[in-house]
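User: Run a structure prediction on this.
Assistant: Running it now.
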Amino acid sequence: MLFLPTFNGLFFCGALGAIAGLILAYSKDKTRLTLVLPVLTAFIVSTIFFLGIKQGIINGSLTIMVPALAYFIPGAVLSTGMFELAANNLVSGAARLVQGVVILLLLLFGVIIGLQVVGLPEDYIIANTATPLYWWAPYIGVLIFTFGMYLLMCIRNKDMLGVLIVLLATFFGQQAGNYFLGGLFGAFTGSIIMTMLGTFLERSKLRTPYYVSIIPAFWVLVPGSLGFLSLAALVGQNYSSSIASLIQVALTFVAISTGLLIGAAIADPLTIGSSP
């Protein structure tokens, strides 16, 4: 619902997400399978998605498939890598960035294989969009997403209030920034609010662990999803828009990491800087 799908798209978002969840549950104790899990899940989900597009059952864009793959999309990894590079932690920052890019490429590889198995041309990787849901859909989506993170991360009941506060504050801060100055300022504002509020709640009576409260909020900022969609557009030979989108994604990572640095400097949750 954060991507404003149609009712048709919302139904298939849930169906594809359920399939991805079953794959994750099946592979839980299978170490060897987890190594290829991003490619395997992307292949299965994309095959079903593109088959639905081909048969005219699914109406919408590639964003319908993104929630089903959200577990693997490395938005937090990429943003943390940028944060560490900005904090002069070059080795760990570069390692995280490489890891994030590799995961995105693995997901994209699975999607391309699924596209070829179905037999659609590559320009179908970016499908036509349809009329989205109402304006209130993202706000309901945040609440549903919070409950999903509660189940996925096995968050303690006493920490849920703190997680919900950080998530909603980040979302509304991002929306306000988007409204006044555009998407980059929204990502910047959201990351500052997320960092400062997460630190405050950890030190307050709630005692919500910092990383427990900010990880769900990272997903709301959706930088990894934007990167995945931009790479998909590039494969679909939509070169001009995809290159512009990739630049926008890179700037979004910079905005988020800068917000993390400023928020950390104000709230002082971390020791910023590198070791001598």
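Residues 127-131, 269-276 have pLDDT under 50 and may be disordered.
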